[in-house]
Design brief:
Elements lengths: L2 H22 L1 E9 L5 H17 L3 E2 L2 E10 L3 H14 L4 E3 L4 H11 L6 E3 L17 E2 L5 H4 L3 H7 L6 E6 L2 H16 L9 E4 L7 H6 L6 E5 L2 H13 L6 E3 L6 H4 L13 E4 L8 H13 L9 H19 L9 H8 L3 E3 L2 E5 L5 E12 L5 E12 L7 H5 L13
Parallel strand pairs: 1-3, 1-4, 4-5, 5-6, 7-8, 7-9, 9-10
Antiparallel strand pairs: 2-3, 11-14, 12-13, 13-14, 14-15
Length: about 425
């Protein structure tokens, strides 16, 4: 063997050892959000939440540097799975945070079952069946689901607002089904109505709401609206321009900062709209105040207050990092010890304590809110009430809760 060849082999071996050492000293973390389509602004704020958590930990956990690799979807299940496949199968991430939208979560849950050595933590995807039925053992949701987000709102609309009959306008997929169920189940149980022929379902990305607005019935007290991102902005703008006078009840993302913080829209008519969700802009708690201050400092071009997307991605990313600290960054057993640490994790968040149930679904505080105009002219969600430690079955025993059936366009029938 020539001296040149021998030296080349020695250098190659040294580089290989060095590369291995670098790999062992770092962990790749994937983050998947909707950075395309009608929910782009939601995904952008979700990514802000990921970066806030990583910044808080100095991009290090369990003694390892964290290398962030991002993936983009457009809220469709196929796009989410394609992005997840790239992150997992090409980029080699052992931990993936995401996705953002409801039906994406159902698809990623099924994909997770084919990748048992990869750990998936939700972003803000909030369809009920992501964890309620046939959950994946390696999928964790620290950010609660869309029915949990509605805790207290149905009762408030019936008892405090005095509404007895409502119309429904929502996007036609799994997350709004979950939200509508979470609102209507208590509202209807108390005696409220939401007739099937007064429910309007539109595709994600719908731009023209004129036919829906024209078809809204006159004999209802309010409209429950579960639209997000550009869809919500388009409807609210067109409803106001059409002279709409019916009061609104907001789904969690319809009057979230991702909509209230949008620019170029006349917005005063949404003041007074009740809603509920995992965050409240005006919650008087030092943990939330610190989170808002950190968000505003790190992202001066963001929303006036963090949206629930920043919040949800932050919490799930923080959970991922805390569990890495628990196991000293050791994922050598295919992540088994890591997932056990996640299952047992209970920690403080900007909105209170969070822990998981046996299906790896979050139990957390939920906020009943109402839109107000803040002192600087920004629209905010004011805290009306905090509903503590809401679980996925809304206090009903699991087997009994399953008897409600899967959420959908006509569940509950409410007539």
């Amino acid at each position: 063997m020539s001296g040149f060849v021998r030296k080349t082999l020695v250098v190659a071996a040294a580089l290989s050892i060095s590369g291995t050492a670098v790999a062992q000293d770092s962990i790749k973390m994937g983050a998947l959000a909707t950075l395309e389509g009608a929910f782009t602004v939601l995904g952008e704020d979700g990514m802000r939440g990921v970066k806030m958590a990583l910044e808080e930990f100095g991009y290090e956990a369990g003694g390892k540097k964290i290398e962030l690799i991002t993936g983009s979807s457009d809220a469709s299940p196929d796009s989410a799975v394609r992005a997840a496949r790239k992150l997992v199968e090409q980029d080699g991430v052992p931990i993936l945070i995401g996705p953002l939208s409801g039906s994406e979560g159902l698809a990623i849950k099924d994909y997770a079952k084919t990748q048992p050595d990869v750990t998936f933590l939700n972003g803000t995807s909030a369809a009920q069946d992501t964890t309620l039925r046939a959950p994946a053992e390696n999928f964790f949701r620290f950010s609660t689901d869309g029915a949990q987000w509605m805790a207290g709102l149905g009762e408030y609309a019936y008892n405090e607002k005095g509404y007895r009959k409502v119309a429904v306008l929502a996007e036609d997929y799994s997350f709004p089904y979950t939200q509508v169920f979470g609102f209507l189940e208590p509202f209807c149980r108390l005696g409220g109505e939401a007739p099937i022929d007064a429910r309007f379902w539109v595709p994600i990305g719908n731009k023209d709401y004129s036919s829906v607005i024209a078809a809204l019935p006159d004999d209802v007290d309010a409209i429950y609206v579960a639209l997000g991102g550009a869809d919500a902005v388009n409807f609210l703008t067109q409803f106001e321009q059409a002279g709409g006078e019916l009061p609104l009840i907001g789904g969690s993302i319809t009057v979230d900062q991702s909509v209230l913080g949008s620019k170029g829209r006349t917005r005063q008519f949404v003041v007074g709209t009740p809603s509920a969700g995992p965050v409240s802009d005006t919650w008087d708690d030092p943990r939330w105040a610190a989170f808002v201050a950190a968000y505003q400092k790190q992202f001066p071009d963001g929303f006036p207050s963090p949206s629930l997307f920043a919040h949800g991605y932050y919490i799930n990313t923080k959970a991922a990092l805390l569990a890495l600290n628990e196991v000293g960054g050791d994922l050598s057993d295919g992540g088994k010890k890591y997932r056990e640490a996640l299952s047992n994790l209970e920690f403080d968040t900007p909105t209170g304590m969070v822990k998981l149930d046996e299906r790896r679904e979050a139990i957390a505080d939920i906020f009943l809110t109402e839109v107000i105009e803040g002192p600087d002219g920004n629209l905010l969600n004011k805290t009306i009430k905090v509903i503590p430690q809401v679980n996925q079955t809304l206090g009903v025993p699991y087997e009994k809760f399953l008897e409600y059936g899967q959420v959908g366009r006509e569940n509950p029938s409410c007539e």
